[in-house]
Design a protein that fits this description.
alpha+beta; 5-stranded antiparallel β-sheet; transferase; Beta-galactosidase, Chain A, domain 5; glycosyltransferase; 6-hairpin_glycosidase_sf; 10-stranded antiparallel β-sheet
């Protein structure tokens, strides 16, 4: 049932991609899928281990630095390497690139939470062994990364030697030719020497600027008492040597504990040693049992069952699994654009979280979703400071790319100018409240965030000829920058302002004391609240009467259209091959912009406008961003363009598995992974979260035999199963609830299936 991804071929061209695909993580710790034994000298691996939000700051160099440009940039750091284990068969070093591979299989088991490589290897001298490499990063004990290696002699083996290494002096990967990857500042950790304590190798390191600390405590052992052992430490490198008789199968285990000062404060090494002591009796299988139980609970709610397409079944599970592996589950972290799978975008959090990844957790694991919102809330003071740096007197401006709240985007036209991130964050807060009904959250975090983002719109925009207009911003489409009245930005601002008014009215009626405290803390008054409502009511939403579409911005339709058909395939993505100014002068979109707005806030436009806009912008969109296909798929479903919806969806589900963008080596495309889930649930099932209830307009793609999934809503668990022409709704958990099916109200009672036609 497609619970694994596998590789049975060893192509050098695929190795970097597979390092990302086979990465393991738990939201705190991430380890790329590197080979323990290493690679040939002529091959460059991106060898990496990362802790979510563990970073340093580096100076941003400008040719011409103007007021408000950020001085520094945050950068996720590669930390000490505990992966390395070399194996010698007599006097020959094991390598997949020497000798003969009689059998090779690599698997990532998504229902059990571990990866495995199995190898039947014949050495250049004809000696044969079976080797199994297993590894996991624990979901239950998040600091722990465990490796288990089993070596079985097959032919002419007299001695097996294992050399395990721990290296604390590491660097980050750089690629000066790709702006999506860091181009410098590779060396940002000051490594400490390694020492032995309590039978473990212990090392630490400190960042150069932020003075954050990290440690790794590594413990190795085997299942054979009869062996020789030696430990050798030279500065920042420790090597342990095990030598075994070659007549018996041997199992070697390496248990590594990582901790950082961001979560664990001081005395990290003592705390990590203590954890090693607490789990000293754990075998690899003990950790594996915990993994399996954790994942049974996860998949019981989150799994999506597709009958009729094994590749898509594998793709959607792969995407959901890696989202789980990458999402921060503590107040110190969020989910980066590449998760914990690689160094692309330097570990920064973008709007990707709220618009593309948050919905999956919102509808399946609301506790994780709430943590993401609380993390954004923890950065509110930094957002207030950023607003002042730009020149605003009030409100908060959330940074375009960040780790701990500072702006890390040096290219303001496609970074800071994307003020819509304020509306995106507000949107996610509103969605959470509508799904959860969490009144405490509504009164505290949501109220403050919506108030502070709303007052910023009054600073960014202005009233002109009876309209509220927002100038000099950039929408989601980064091929069109610094424009006036970007439709997406304006409509998200309108939604933000309207809901701030609703929050005010609700608190005034239900909790005037909280409202009084909030207004006092923010130095706000009723006159300001009234301005928010006036701005919302008079918000200018560009519309073209001739084309009957929402214009992307004031001048988009005045430009000539880029000839996409005449553009050579090797010139995509355009951002790597053409100067931004050239792109800005044409009607050409990197990704969904107005179309995305129509998905998120469909009630602000009529069906005719939405359809006309979709058809128009589809013709000028390159989909150079991985955030684009899923939105066009969702909206094609809404517009009953089912063949097109499926085609776009198929490009999202396996984007990383098939390396469709050619850069999976730098890390997985987390937003696209969330978008794949959205393509099913918001697209084919037609889910929309409204203020009053949840609505569905489902249909089953003709390529599938059935589709089944769950969502959580207001403390209930609702199951949907679609077959040809039918959908069955079942309330699995919780009190009776009303939902809407194609606009008609349906009451669900516990355990009683309700069948409906999928056709209107």
């Amino acid at each position: 049932m497609s619970w694994n991804i596998e590789s049975s071929k060893l192509n050098k061209s695929d190795l970097l991609t597979n390092e990302s695909l086979f990465f393991l993580g738990n939201g705190y710790l991430g380890v790329r899928g590197n080979f323990e034994e290493g690679y040939p000298e002529d091959y460059k691996s991106i060898r990496g281990t990362y802790i979510n939000a563990f970073h340093d700051k580096v100076d941003i160099e400008y040719g011409e630095k103007l007021h408000g440009f950020p001085d520094t940039q945050e950068k996720l750091l590669n930390i000490m390497d505990a992966q390395s284990v070399q194996i010698w068969v007599d006097d020959e070093r094991f390598s997949l690139f020497e000798g003969e591979l009689l059998d090779y299989q690599r698997n990532l088991w998504m229902n059990q939470g571990y990866s495995e490589r199995t190898v039947h290897w014949r050495s250049p001298q004809g000696k044969e062994v079976n080797i199994s490499f297993k590894r996991l990063v624990s979901f239950v004990k998040r600091e722990v990364f465990v490796q288990e290696i089993t070596i079985e002699p097959i032919k002419d083996v007299s001695r097996i030697s294992i050399y395990s290494e721990l290296e604390s002096d590491v660097s980050n990967f750089v690629d000066p030719d790709d702006p999506r990857v860091a181009s410098g500042h590779a060396k940002r950790l000051s490594a400490e020497d390694i020492y032995e304590k309590n039978g473990c190798h212990v090392t630490g390191a400190e960042t150069l600027e932020t003075r954050m600390s990290v440690c790794c405590v590594s413990k190795t052992f085997s299942d054979k008492e009869n062996h020789t052992y030696e430990s050798n430490i030279e500065g920042t490198t420790a090597q342990e040597t095990y030598i075994f008789d070659g007549e018996e199968k041997v199992t070697f285990t390496k248990r590594n504990v990582y901790m950082d000062s961001l979560r664990y404060g001081k005395n990290l090494e003592e705390k990590a040693i203590q954890l090693q002591e607490e789990v000293k009796s754990y075998t690899f299988n003990d950790f594996l049992k915990e993994q399996i139980q954790y994942l049974e609970d996860f998949w019981a709610t989150s799994d999506i069952l597709i009958e009729g397409d094994d590749d898509l079944q594998q793709g959607i599970r792969f995407n959901m699994y890696h989202l789980l592996q990458s999402v921060g589950k503590d107040p110190k972290s969020n989910i980066a654009a590449k998760g914990l799978s690689g160094e692309g975008y330097e570990g920064h959090y973008f709007w990707d979280t709220e618009i593309y990844m948050f919905p999956f957790f919102l509808m399946t694991n609301p506790e994780i979703a709430k943590n993401l919102l609380l993390h954004r809330y923890s950065l509110l003071d930094s957002a207030r400071q950023r607003a002042k740096e730009i020149g605003h007197t009030r409100g908060a401006l959330f940074p375009w790319r960040t780790i701990t709240g500072g702006e890390s985007s040096a290219f303001f036209p496609a970074g800071t100018a994307q003020y819509h991130i304020n509306g995106d964050i507000a949107y996610s807060y509103i969605q959470y409240y509508m799904v959860s009904g969490d009144e405490d959250f509504f009164k505290k975090e949501m109220a403050e965030v919506l108030f502070e983002t709303s007052r910023l719109w009054l600073e960014v925009g202005h009233f002109h000829e009876g309209q509220f207009r927002i100038d000099s911003v950039t929408g989601p489409d980064e091929y069109t920058c610094i424009v006036n009245n970007n439709y997406y930005t304006n409509v998200m601002a309108k939604n933000n302002l309207l809901w701030a008014g609703k929050v005010y009215d609700h608190l005034k009626s239900e909790d005037p004391q909280r409202l009084s405290e909030l207004m006092s803390d923010l130095d706000a008054d009723e006159e300001e609240i009234g301005k928010w409502q006036e701005a919302a009511e008079k918000m200018f939403l560009p519309y073209n009467e001739a084309l009957k579409i929402n214009e992307q911005d004031d001048t988009f339709l005045q430009k000539g259209k880029w000839d996409l058909d005449a553009t050579p395939k090797d010139k995509y993505p355009l951002l790597l091959n053409y100067h931004p100014l050239l792109l800005y002068r044409y009607q050409v979109c990197k990704q969904a912009d107005t179309v995305l707005a129509h998905f998120l806030l469909e009630d602000f436009s009529d069906q005719e406008t939405i359809e006309n806009s979709y058809n128009y912008y589809e013709a000028v969109t390159t989909h150079d961003s991985s955030l684009s296909f899923c939105v066009f798929s969702i909206m094609a479903s809404k517009l009953d363009q089912k063949e097109k919806a499926y085609d776009y969806f198929s490009k999202t589900s396996r984007l990383d598995l098939d390396n469709l963008h050619g850069n999976t080596k730098d890390g997985l495309h987390m937003a696209n992974m969330g978008g794949t889930w959205m393509g099913i649930v918001y697209g084919f099932a037609g889910l929309r979260v409204k203020e009053s209830n949840v609505h569905f307009s489902p249909y089953l793609p003709e390529q599938w035999g059935s589709l089944e999934f769950n969502i959580r809503y207001r403390g209930r668990l609702i199951n949907l199963k679609l077959t040809k022409g039918k959908v069955v709704y079942t309330l699995v958990e919780g009190k009776p609830v009303d939902i809407f099916h194609h606009g008609a109200e349906v009451t669900l009672e516990s355990g009683i299936p309700v069948e409906k036609d999928t056709k209107v």
